[in-house]
């Protein structure tokens, strides 16, 4: 049994005037990512368009693709499954979009959340942000932990520690004790 994913690799010899292809992978019916000697490229097979070079192009995840620029700052940005850039923003760090359609992004040293449409769920204000799970995400701000829902509303009044939501509940630590918290912010002692 072969447990390795089926990846289409292509290796070519250098021909006059053409750059050698190191890696090639089809992302969907329309797009493929190609690594050449000068960097990574996103190729629209239908339109025969090539975008790049990039420092890196991630595989497709939840209908989006992350790419890291080749400029000196190596900022990240996103493409949709058609190969169109999502928004105009570029980020110091950019995580994959979740099934909820929300990605964690870092700009100017602070974390925020971005929708697949390219709009911010919140302003950049968090010291750190975890991924959305069951419609809630844990965030850290000014040394305290909170949850945030998909509308951007902060849940809780600041906790000492926090865990991701799982099976409809979250776990928070306050004044040395662990509590179960629901999506409305109601606490029950664990």
- What is the typical, i.e. mean, pLDDT? 90
- The proportion of strand residues reads over 45%
Neighbour order of strands in the largest sheet: 1-2-3-4
Oligomer: single chain
Give the tally of β-strands.
19
- By helix and strand content, what is the structural category? mainly beta
Helix segment count?
0
Shape: elongated
SSE topology string: EEEEEEEEEEEEEEEEEEE
What is the alpha-carbon Rg in Å?
20 Å
Give the uncertain stretches in residue-range form. Answer: 9-14
Which sheet architecture does the biggest sheet show?
Answer: 4 strands, antiparallel
Range of helix content: under 10%
C-alpha end-to-end distance = 45 Å
Key traits:
190 residues; four-stranded antiparallel β-sheet; mainly beta
Describe the overall structure.
The protein contains no helices and 19 strands. It is mainly β. The strands form five sheets. It has a four-stranded antiparallel beta sheet, with no helix packed on it. It has a four-stranded antiparallel beta sheet with strand order 5-6-7-8, with no helix packed on it. A four-stranded antiparallel beta sheet has the order 12-13-14-15, with no helix packed on it. A hairpin with a 6-residue loop joins strand 5 and strand 6.
């Amino acid at each position: 049994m072969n447990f390795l994913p089926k990846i289409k690799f292509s290796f070519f010899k250098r021909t006059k005037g053409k750059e050698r292809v190191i890696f090639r992978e089809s992302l969907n019916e329309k797009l493929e990512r190609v690594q050449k000697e000068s960097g990574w490229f996103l190729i629209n097979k239908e339109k025969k368009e090539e975008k790049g070079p990039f420092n890196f192009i991630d595989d497709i995840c939840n209908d989006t693709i992350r790419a890291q620029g080749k400029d000196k700052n190596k900022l990240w940005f996103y493409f949709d499954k058609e190969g169109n850039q999502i928004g105009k923003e570029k980020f110091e760090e950019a995580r994959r979009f979740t099934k909820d359609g929300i990605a964690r992004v870092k700009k100017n040293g602070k974390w925020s959340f971005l929708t697949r449409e390219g709009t911010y769920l919140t302003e950049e204000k968090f010291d750190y942000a975890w991924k959305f799970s069951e419609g809630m995400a844990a965030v850290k701000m000014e040394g305290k932990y909170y949850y945030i829902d998909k509308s951007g509303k902060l849940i809780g009044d600041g906790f000492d520690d926090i865990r991701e939501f799982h099976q409809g509940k979250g776990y928070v630590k306050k004044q040395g004790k662990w509590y179960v918290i629901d999506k409305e912010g109601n606490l029950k002692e664990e």
